[in-house]
Structures are given as C-alpha cells and as structure tokens.
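Here's a chain:
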Amino acid sequence: MKNLGLVIVDGVGYRNFILSNFLSEASNNFEEIIIYSGLKESVYDLERFKNIKVVELTVYKEDKITWFFRKLNETAHLYKFKNFFGISDTLSFTKPKGNSKRAVVNRLIRIVASLLHFEAMMKLYQRLIYNSFSNNVITKQFIQILKETNPNILFFTHQRPPYIAPLVYAANVNNIKTCSFIFSWDNLASKGRMPAMFDSFLVWSDLMKQELNYFYPSIIEEVIQVVGTPQFEPYIMEDYNSTKEDFIKMFKLDKNNKTICFSCGDLSTGGNDQLAIEIIAKSILNNKINESVNLLIRTSPADDGSRFIKLKERYPFIIWNKPKWEQTRENHTEPWSQRVPLSQDIKDLRAILEFSDVSINMCSTMSLDFMIFNKPVINQVLGNSDNGLFDDQRFLNYDHYKKVVESGAVSIVKSEEELVNSINKCLKNPLHLEKEQKYLLNLQIGKPLEGTSKRIVESLLQLSK
C-alpha cells in the first residue's frame, strides 16, 4: 500500500476533501495519509481514522523577488490568452493605478509580459520563481518535512495559491510525485498562470480537461484524469440530510409559502446584490410576486454581511443565512483562506438547495448547486457599462459562464421587470428548463456525484505508481 500526502491550504479545500467522503475512501486504500495543512491542526477531527496525521505547515510569505517573477509568469499567461474575454477582463481590472513603487513595478511587469509571453519564456519564469526561494528557511523546512514523511504522491487540493509553490519545489527536490485538483470551473479561462507546475492533474470534466490542455500545452493528456468534483458530494451523503420540516424550523419559515433563495456574491462580484434584493422585497410587499413566498438570503462566506444592515432594518421579513465558516487564523497573507466551514453549514446549505423553490444569483457556481436538486435558476445581471451600476453583465461573456448562457439552463434577467416576471414564471413552472439543466450539469461536472471520492482515490493510486 502507498502513502498519500494531502495538501489542504484553505477552507474550500477543507470543505471539499475533509467534509466529503474523501478521507473515508483514502484511509481504506492508503497505508498512511499525511495532511500537510495550511490551516491550524486544531480544525481537524480525525479520531475515527487511525492512519491519518496532520503536519501543520509554517506560513510562507513571498519575498519581493519571488513576487516579481510569479507576477511576471502570471501576467505573461494573461497576455498569451487575452483573446478570451475573462482573461482580458482580468488584465483590465488588475491594471495598476497610481504611482506607488508597486504600481510602477507592475507596469514594468506588464510591458515585459506583453512582449515575452510564449511558453518557453513562462517555463523560464517558473525556474526563476523556484530559484528565488530555493534557499528560503521555510522552503528548506518543507524539503526536510517531505524527506522525513516521504509520501508516494503529494496531492494538492487547490492549484492557485502562491504559497504552495515552495511545497511543490520541495516535492521535486525529494523526487515525490505531485498531483493537483483544478478546484473551480472558472480557474482556467479567466485566471493567470499557476504558481507551480505538477506532474499530474485531476479535473471535473472532459471540458475542463480540454481547457487544461489548451491553456497549458506542455501538459500531456495522459497525466490528466477526469473525476468530477467532491464539492457537490455532500449533497448525496446521509450525514447532511434534512427533512422539509427541518428546513422550515431551521430558518423559521412560513410553511404555507414557497421559498425564494437569493445567493449573494462577494464584494468583488456582488456589487448589485443589495439592489436586486430590494427589488424582490418591494415586489413581495406590492404583490407583484403572484404567490406567497419566503425570501431567504444566503450571504457569501467571504463577506461579513455589513453591507446588508440597512436592508435588514428596512425589510424585517427577510430571512438571512450567514454561512457558518469560522476564522481560524488572523495573521495570514490571505486571511480569507483561514476561514473554515462547519459541517452544520453543509447541512444548512443542502437543505436550502433541496427545499427552496427558486434560486437567484449573479453567475455563481450556486447555479450548479441548485440544478443538482432540479431547481429553477435565475441569474440577475442588472449592471452594464452604460447604466451606472456595477457592470455584472460582463460576466456573461466569461468563457466558463458563456457556456451556461448558451445552454439555456438559466433565466438571464437584466431589469427589474424581467426579474419579477422570471420569478413568477419559475414559481409557476419550476421544471421548464429541466432538459437544459441536465445537459449543463453533464457538461460541467462530467461524472455522477456517487463515487466521486472513490474515483479520486483510484486515480491517485494509479498516478502514484
């Protein structure tokens, strides 16, 4: 039997691989599992597992030289693929402003990247990144840790955080195979280059495999395996099951009403959330919604919710669900990464998905979550470059979401009237887009939810040979 190294760097990785069936499957198939954790060791409850241990990693902070080369590599990738709208939009909104030293250096990076962004140069930038931290104290610590624990394969649950690069390098030094999960559906067609390269990859679907091959042409097909995603596996696990009565009691809902769930974005994507919520709330008060409804708002785990205080005061009938994610460490380069979900939050979310009647969100992955439970989905995009609102309509052109729009699986609304009309249509005929939703789920997720963790473990066993 083999030993598995599991790298958990943030709360999302914890949610996907600790709160799913993954550890149960892995513990039955690997002799030992070592969790190399960017989170505090105390967040893990592993008493039921006899062959899993946690190694809490020292927090790594980039120095200026490493940051420069990583940013250069990331930006070169953006310039190489700027014909994709999501990537060109990323280039646009990350354009440096002002005359600070950091802004000046960023402009220099963009000039170099705009000229030298072919594959060979990006491989050179990668080597320079590794060289820049090869003698770092923490990097040497990582090398020693991996030498002592010696897993057969080191599995990264997230490919994007910059602080994973020294651990990938440490694995290379120790001749330990590396594998990464592409953790989100938008990570390839709208983001810069990964901060490190891996020996193999696990992806959601054939579509994501094609994208990975396109954006990283040096990766050969044989090292990419399609497994689905553990992100949705809790929705079929008995541990998180609830009844309709539990749902009503949990959120103090009127059992005679249908429920509209509005899922908020974070501060970077949900700029029109307050406006959309107010439109719905006023429509309920003015009887523009044709049926009696509960309005349930689930805020983003990355948002403290303070921007909704006035709405809470103005519309006391709205029910609010603040995700149960706990901040485990404050002094971190990315504090959000240290926010970890409780298992109760997964249970709350599953109940919301299963027993709400209509989903409304701004081009979020939550569209897929609700479709899994055959719920109608409305995407509200009220802003554009002309009307003075936050321009969320541009997200419709992002490559990953353009496929959603083209599938016809969601109702796209761009005005107050369209939003109200669409809510009424979805309440009356909730399955009117069922065929389109099933097509989209198959395209994006690629594999059945059943057996997701088993497929991942089988792939890791194969890749560790």
